[in-house]
Design goal:
alpha/beta, two-stranded antiparallel ribbon, Rossmann fold, globular, seven-stranded mixed sheet
């Protein structure tokens, strides 16, 4: 997967005008291309260049407040969890972060999004059962973007893990070997209240729960929050919980009612960005490409996912201004 962005997009992402951007590239000795008229210019910007530019500017890489491990979870399906995880991972890599995605869902939708229909050879259960070390399961997807894939073997994970194993032994202890190689480790979890999800949450700095405008989704949110509270009760620690309002529409009363309810009950946990409903999401899945690859056209989907990624990365204000 080629994750380069256009020069115009790179400048907008970094908040730099053409002159300032060119000056930093010159300092970095960035290779340019010669046009037919003889003018030398850069046409695309790779993640490694974005990383170097952000380094020159003294920006921290990774999540806000120095955090690194983030999990997209939710006990209900159909909340857009994988779509958000997929596009946020790609966009974070385009911002220059080294990103490792880990798919722990037996449906392997994130794996299919990143690798196509090719199933992952290994999954997290193989790591836990010590069939293979974590480093050998990692599949390169694009520059600054890697994946630990999933497959149907994860369907038996709950039976193998049971409820008697300390969650640290299921996930956290294995991340030690690779965590310094990445700025962000991003989990996409199955829609379940399971031992593996408990263990992923235990290992995470942040758990993100997407929330749609459905009443059933609201019920699922409360179950997920109760599930995460058990970590604090049982082990004296828990990740930071963030909620993102997904599939939002300002024209629909249920959407507005849900957003107001979330703002009232979970203001401190709610992302500033509300991700609006857009046809571009299913189109991107059908075409097996994320929203942000070269040639994409501006849309509210692109705008919102970029804003959500920036907010998660703590880049100091949303590129497109306040979303709500």
């Amino acid at each position: 997967m080629h994750l380069a962005v256009t020069v115009e997009d790179a400048r907008a992402m970094l908040g730099l005008n053409a002159r300032a951007f060119a000056k930093i590239l010159e300092e970095l000795g960035e290779t340019t291309h010669e046009t037919p008229s003889g003018k030398r210019t850069l046409t695309t910007v790779e993640p490694s260049t974005m990383r170097a530019v952000r380094g020159v500017r003294g920006e921290n890489l990774g999540l806000f407040n120095g955090k690194k491990i983030v999990a997209f979870q939710g006990c209900k399906g159909g909340i857009g969890k994988t779509t958000l995880a997929y596009n946020v991972a790609v966009r974070a890599a385009q911002y220059g972060n080294r990103v490792l995605c880990i798919d722990t869902d037996q449906q392997a939708h994130l794996t299919m999004c990143l690798l196509g229909k090719e199933a992952g050879k290994h999954c997290w259960l193989d790591i836990f059962e010590e069939r293979v070390p974590l480093a050998e399961t990692i599949v390169p997807v694009g520059e600054h973007l890697d994946l630990v894939p999933s497959n149907l073997r994860m369907a038996i994970a709950e039976k193998r893990l049971g409820n008697t194993i300390h969650p640290k032994r299921i996930v956290a202890q294995y991340l030690t070997a690779i965590r310094d190689n990445y700025d962000i480790v991003l989990f996409d979890c199955a829609p379940a209240l399971s031992s593996i999800n408990h263990a992923v949450a235990f290992a995470s700095d942040i758990v993100i729960i997407p929330q749609t405008t459905s009443r059933l989704s609201l019920d699922g949110l409360e179950l997920s929050l109760d599930f995460l509270r058990e970590l604090r009760e049982d082990f004296g620690m828990a990740p930071e919980v963030r909620i993102v309002c997904n599939m939002f529409s300002q024209q629909e009363t249920p959407s507005l009612r849900t957003l107001y309810s979330l703002m009232e009950q979970h203001q401190g946990a709610l992302f500033q960005t509300a991700v609006r409903r857009c046809v571009k999401y299913p189109e991107a899945v059908d075409y097996e490409r994320p929203l942000f690859l070269l040639g994409y056209r501006p849309s509210i989907a692109v705008e919102d996912l970029d804003a959500l990624t920036r907010e998660l990365l703590g880049l100091g204000g949303l590129r497109h201004g306040k979303n709500r």
